[in-house]
Amino acid sequence: MAEESTFVPVESISPEDAVIQEETTTVADESTNVEIPLTSDGGVTKLILVKGSSDESPQSGDKVEVHYVGTLLDGSKFDSSRDRGDPFVFELGKGHVIRGWDVGVASMKRGEKAVLTCRSDYAYGASGSPPKIPADATLKFEVELLNWRDTSDLFGDGTLIKKVVKEGTGWELPKMGDEVHMRLAAWLAIAADADAKPFFETGEEGKTFLLDDNLLGKGLVEAGVTMKIGETANITLDPMFAFGDEGHEAYGVPGGASIRIQATLLEIHRLENVTEDGLVVKKTLSSPEDQFRTPNDGSRVTISLTGRLADGQTVFDQHDALTFTVGEDQVAEGVELAVLKMRKSARALVTISDPKYAYGTRGFSGSKAPEIVVPGGYAGPLTYEVQLLDFENAKESWEMNDGEKVEVAKAKKEKGNRYFKNGNVPRAAKMWDAAAHLVADDKSFTAEQKSESREIRKSCYLNLAAADLRGKMYKGAVENCRQVLELDPENVKGLYRRAQALAGLKEFLEAEKDIKKALELDSKNTDVLALSKQIKMQVAEQNKKERGMYAKIQVAEQNKKERGMYAKMQVAEQNK
Fold first, then answer.
1. Phi, psi of 191 (to 5 degrees)
2. What is the pLDDT, as a whole number, of residue 552?
3. Which of 123, 193, 299, 370 sits in a 20 to 30 Å window from 111, CA-based?
4. Is 364 a known active-site residue?
């Protein structure tokens, strides 16, 4: 196995070990055998051994490919890519290697071979890189710049070039479907005059648009998804990434023209469906990158909120600081669900397009002005501008003692019952499921707590089975009833609801077994008796259909035989 490189990233040097020197000097002498200072403090010098074959040097962000041999000042070698037989590849100017290399390699031409001498504060500092590189060591590297790839050429064929003018901040990048706020100006690529008037510009205030709207061609989309907030880039688009052979008449761009764009990404407005049905949508207006926690169920939350009717102007609800507990029905459900996906200090625009996630049939009397109301069944859409000011999360299950788990599970079960009563079956099911799981592991519980937890689980699983039956999700109902019957094999409701589910799956024999056992336990249960009668009728109907199908098959088979016999008789008559 080849020896691993001792050439470690600059991040391994502690801040106190490296003195940051930003100034660099222009390389004035490219002749060989002359040591050239590359920094104003003399921390990096270069001695050219072989001149390069071009006038170009790599730029920050380019992926460079080099061979190198690293030695101490006494000539002892500590690392060599040549010995390993593999060139070393890294991204220039991004701090992925020691600072002396970022400075030195940026000054080289393709094919150039040079010795870079790096003082310790441009190398491994006071810590060194044991065991081969001692503390405070000045290092020499014989470096040959083999090649580099311009990472600004996004597809490697010159059709879309993005040059970063100003680096952005943070880690977040836009995604397809996101809304972005950009400052833009665009020119024809052939406009050589620096004062040429752009054919499109937003002004300093910028413009908000969906990234994949192809505002200035699909090249802006492809380059846009690589940008960070605050980044400014010059983007050159081949016609295929601009307006193609058709051009853009309104902008005055002829067919087949290349264009160049200067773009600054000011904001990313992430669009996401809060609910699976897409009836509650959250658009993030701002979200701090140093915050990662979000509220949980039961959190005590404080938000600022402005709610508007469908006209986007009429304010019906407004609070500078509204405090509520998640899961207590104190705000519109859609708002609550969106807040659960927000970080502290984040701002978002929440759109609710169905009254079931807002105020249902009961409506809402506006807090802004009593005469402004949201009538029952109002389809909206309603929009809310929300900022999450603060929150205190409820304890997670692993933070609770056994007694707390039982009490919280009881509360969640009751919340689920209230949601179900109000017609919110999905949210009720979520609460019941959470309650059952919270007390599922009861090994450490006292006898009394175990008894309570079993009752909670039985009740929740029976309720979940009822919800599944209501939605005709028969397999889910069977599974939830199985959970009940594991806890209590003689639970009549569990047997009854499983029989209902099995009948829905047309597994009548299994359903009849559950009916039989339920009636043995409670022979006068009217619900079970009615289901027994219904299943018998369904079995009879199924048998009737099956007999009819069998009869048809027999008739078809008989007809087939008769046709065959008739054909044989015809052939025999002909031969005769």
1. -75, 95
2. 67
3. 123
4. no
Catalytic entry in 141, 199, 461, 474: 141
DSSP 8-class letter at 73: T
Q: How far apart are CA 485 and CA 521, in angstroms?
A: 14
The pLDDT tens digits for 363-422 are 888 666 667 888 888 878 999 999 999 999 988 888 999 999 999 999 999 989 988 887
DSSP for 321-363 reads EEEEETTSS-S-HHHHHHHTT--TT-EEEEEE-SGGGTTTTT-
Residue 12, pLDDT > 50, answer no
Count the Cβ atoms, other than its own, within 10 Å of residue 233: 22
Residue 288 neighbours by CB under 8 Å, 6+ apart: 343, 344, 345, 346
Name the active-site residue from 124, 378, 391, 445: 124
For residue 23, pLDDT beyond 70: no
How far apart CA 82 and CA 69 sit, in angstroms, is 7
Token match 């106190």: residue? 16
Q: What is the DSSP string of 146-206?
A: EEEE-TTBTTSSSSEEEEEEE--BSS----TT-EEEEEEEEEETT---TTPPPSEE--TT-
Q: Which of 13, 48, 98, 456 is catalytic?
A: 98
- How many Å apart are CA 331 and CA 420, to the nearest integer? 17
Catalytic residue among 7, 68, 122, 364: 68
For 136, 288, 325, the CA distances from 304, given in Å and listed in that order, are: 55, 17, 14
Given this model, what pLDDT does residue 424 score? 83
Set 13, 36, 79, 209: catalytic member: 79
Tell me the CA distances in angstroms from 56 to 62, 354, 480, 543, one per residue in order.
12, 60, 70, 86
Active site residue 78: yes
State which amino acid sits at residue 78. Answer: F
Query: Is 193 among the catalytic positions?
Result: no
Q: Is 297 a catalytic residue?
A: no
Residue 212's pLDDT is 86
Share the mean pLDDT of the chain. 87
* 420 is a catalytic site residue: no
3-state helix, strand, coil in the chain (%, to 5): 35, 25, 40
* Mean pLDDT, residues 280-291 taken together: 88
Amino acid 258: pLDDT: 93
CB atoms within 10 A of CB 472: 10
pLDDT tens track for 353-364: 999 899 888 888
Residue 347 confidence (pLDDT): 94
Query: What's the token pair of residue 507?
Result: 């597994």
455 has a pLDDT exceeding 50: yes
Render pLDDT for 141-182 as a digit per residue (tens, 0 to 9). Answer: 999 999 988 778 888 888 999 988 898 988 889 998 899 999
Task: Give how far Cα 166 sits from Cα of 143, 264, 273, 479, Å.
Answer: 29, 9, 33, 58
Per-residue pLDDT, averaged over 476-497, amounts to 95
Residue 21 pLDDT: 37
User: Residues near 451 by Cβ (< 8 Å), separated by ≥ 6?
Assistant: none
Global confidence as pTM: 0.60
Q: Distance of alpha carbon 309 from its chain centroid, rounded?
A: 30
Annotated active-site residue 98? The verdict is yes
Strand arrangement of the beta sheet that strand 271-273 belongs to:
271-273, 280-286, 347-352, 382-392, 300-308, 315-325
Exactly one of 17, 78, 251, 402 is catalytic; which is it?
Answer: 78
